[in-house]
Design a protein that fits this description.
The chain is α/β, with parallel strands linked by helices and 301 residues long. The chain is built from 6 helices and 17 strands. Bound molecules: flavin-adenine dinucleotide.
């Protein structure tokens, strides 16, 4: 029985692991990867101490810090979290069970899918979820970006610098900051298709055509080699749904000390109902959660 299981190896989970180690807690970190969304982030300019650093570089710094302590890391996917009758926790990775007195859920978010034909088949073969990461692969090619928020508009602006043509497909009005909308307006090479929805992605080995439809149902076929889906992120909270309350966005509801309301269960970072999703905030949450779990165990003794 561990003192603590941390689920997720992004900035929240890795910070929690360092704080738990410094409190000499017997902590197990279970994660699908180390780094989380920072894996897809090319430029970070707002993590204090580094005026400019790439995502992979910052992951390296975090990992080095975590492994300075005797780290107990299992690379696996958590499929279910449950509180046992005695108040301790059962964490399943498929058939394998891990037990702990406290749990921190720090499982972050993943890109939202379009849900149209061809999306799954062409993922990695023309369909992408991170223009910042994969944009350079489309130099001289025609691409489409789907979405109307900051990330979609920024993706279109970035891609315009390398692609031969960029279509920006948005269902309705833009939901981006005015400064980003203005920048888009003055960027050459972007054709905006507002009031269009995605219908399907087609091609051979790789993407060749993207079919979109206007509000009146009229379809348009775009000859593109890449489709970037930038329509937001969904929380990785499914495995915890039976153990604690989720809000309307399927985020884990927490108070300002990362407590879920279930004694011994804490959540940190992007997976939570906390309003702002940033590396420094996730890291701060991870620290708070580990200290809260430590205090909880002290009080129980
Ligand atoms: C393209 C992009 C650019 C960004 N740029 C910036 C920036 O410049 N500055 C900034 O501050 N923020 C930026 N962000 C936001 C920032 O990356 C996130 O706020 C931050 O990574 C959240 O950290 P987290 O630890 O809560 O979750 P995540 O980073 O999402 O990490 C979650 C971890 O949980 C693991 N996991 C998920 N489900 C399971 C499961 N079932 N079992 C086991 N492990 C699981 C994942 O593998 C991952 O390791 C950016 C995000 C994106 C997508």
């Amino acid at each position: 029985m561990h003192d603590l299981i941390i689920i997720g190896g992004g900035p929240a989970g890795m910070t929690a692991a360092v704080y738990a180690a410094r409190k000499l807690m017997d902590a197990l970190l279970i994660t699908s990867d180390l780094g989380g969304q920072m894996i897809w982030t090319r430029e970070i300019e707002n993590y204090l101490g580094y005026q400019y650093i790439t995502g992979p570089e910052l992951i390296g710094k975090f990992e080095e810090h975590v492994k300075k302590y005797p780290a107990n890391i299992v690379y696996d996917e958590v499929t279910k979290l449950e509180q046992a009758a005695d108040g301790t926790f059962r964490v399943w990775c498929g058939a394998r069970e891990h037990r702990a007195k406290t749990v921190i859920v720090a499982s972050g978010k993943r890109p939202r899918r379009l849900g149209v034909p061809g999306e799954v088949e062409y993922t990695g073969r023309g369909v992408g979820y991170c223009a910042t990461c994969d944009g350079p692969l489309y130099a001289g090619k025609a691409v489409a970006v789907v979405g109307g928020g900051n990330s979609a508009l920024q993706a279109a602006i970035e891609l315009a610098a390398v692609a031969s043509k960029v279509y920006l497909v948005a269902r309705g009005e833009f939901r981006a900051d005015p400064v980003v909308v203005e920048k888009l307006r003055t960027t050459a090479g972007v054709e905006v298709l507002q009031g269009y929805v995605a219908r399907g992605i087609y091609g051979g080995e790789t993407v060749e055509r993207f079919v979109v439809a206007a509000r009146d149902g009229a379809e348009r076929e775009l000859a593109v080699q890449g489709v970037f889906v930038e329509i937001g992120l969904d929380p990785n909270s499914e495995f915890a749904a039976g153990a604690t309350a989720l809000n309307a966005y399927r985020e884990i509801a927490v108070d300002c000390r990362t407590a879920t309301g279930v004694p011994g269960l804490f959540a940190a970072g992007d997976v939570t109902s906390g309003p702002d999703k940033q590396i420094i905030i996730a890291a701060g949450d991870g620290a708070k959660a580990a200290l809260a779990a430590y205090e909880y165990l002290l009080r129980k003794q």
